[in-house]
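PROTOCOL LOG
Step 1. Enter all chains and additional molecules of the complex.
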Amino acid sequence: MTSRSQRRLGRSILLHLFLTPLALIWLFPLWMMVVFSTMPDNGIFSPGIELLPHDNFLENFNNLQRDTNFVGAIGISVSVAVTYTFLSVLLTSMAGWALARYEFLGKGIVVAIIFGTITLPYAVVLIPQFIMVARDFQLANTWVALIVPPLFNSLGVLFMRQAFSMMPAELFDAARVEGVKEWRIFLFIALPLARPMLAALAIILFLASWNNYLWPLLINSQPGAMTAPVALGTLIGLTKVSWGGIMAGAVMLTVPMLVVFVLLQRHFIAGIAAGAVK
Amino acid sequence: MRHRNATAYRFLTPYLLIFAIFWVWPIISSFLISFQATRTVPWRFAPTFNWGRLIGDPAFFNALKNTLLILVIQVPVMISLAIVMAVLLNSPLLKARGLYRFAFFAPVVVGEVAYSAVFRLMFSLDFGIINKLLNGVGLPKVDWFSNVTPAMALIMIAVTWRWAGYNAIIILAGLQSIPEDVYEAATLDRVSKVKQFFHITLPLLKPVIVFCAVLSIIGTMQLFTEPFLITERGGPGGGTETLGLLLYRQGFRSLNFGYASAVAYTMAGLAIAITLVQLWLTRDPK
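Step 2. Run joint prediction.
Step 3. Record the structure below.
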């Protein structure tokens, strides 16, 4: 017995000896992001090794605001992400509901198409999307351009289809017998029951919109219409720019998401893991 | 389930409408544009104009080579690391599990621009913390941005940091769906933990690992932000230019939509081909 528990202890120590340095390496870039954001530029570009935060965050933030209107860009990012999340959750759960609870003509085709687009690179639609939105619709540098084209997502629909098909049919049949309309059944019975899944989906969609870079970079390139990542990206690589400021911007983009992640970890992980569990 | 065409399509219409406008039409349109000369007004049909150029374009082959190189090195390294992370995070011996999970999963929420900026600063030649630490332990500085090999390594390190935890989350969910009694039986039969991993865990995880690999390949195939921001538009001298970056340069800097569409279709073709090969290689032997 003693030798077995000793072996267990040995294995446990080995496990922690391996995992702790790996965890520290993994945290290092995030830690350095915070450290850089609190250092003056002449501190970032000095030969010494600095691993602890300083107290220059506010000045860095002011430098960032001088280089680009970051607060305005954050405002656009927040509004777009909130609107996008709401609309996308609604659209994908409606589609997921239809696929989970009804038999209809062409269902097989719709499902096949949705699965098919998972393996299709976004690059294929990028150029026509840009031509259409910018030239044909004249919508470049508007919120609509940021919100509407990314509304199509396949993993979300499959996730919601899964969520709705796991619910017992009797729930809805009882309401149908009473003569409740289908859209009311969806809105007032199914959606409230799917709340944990909706939360997971909403978090993933919000994050995707908040961090989206390529499409906003292309379609909203006017200074007043940029999202926060795009505005920050324009500074990277310029010569006369405050790197402390860029890091302050990076912290403002990242830390709120980290807080949300810690608070809602279960939903986050459920949303990401859902992709694989079919 | 009941047969209700009208009701079903009422629920599906908004979604399918967005799909038709922003995906179906662009997929067709992109294909058509790739057969047109787009730098004349109006565009004219010239079937070999872009595709002919693609076949003989050294910039295309350079980007293709770089993309495939990142693909064959970075994806296997990252997936292996993700498996190790997931298996160890799942160990009942682990204390302070929450802290370790945070460390590995946190990069999942970090945006491409924010982490590109940090990596650029951390790896800079004279004042980057990485070179300072290398010097500190007696190793020479590495010029991460002026030489092709370190620049490629940097891109792969950055992408691996960002995505390993994401894949570990998916693999961990797969691990937790393996019933406990399989392992109990194996332990009773005195099968070692290492053997259990290779003969029970890995085979049962295969579908999840394939899923991760497919998503990672499609993601890496389109790699854009990291070489755009970290190595400064695919530098040094195109050494880290990817297909995604070539598409951006041709489509949105030179406004050569026809050629960029041909590049996009090449990426899609490659992604689909690699995915099919992957599915075929890992198919059930039955």
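Step 4. Note key features.
Chain B has one domain: 59-281.
The first strand of chain B starts at residue 2 and ends at 3.
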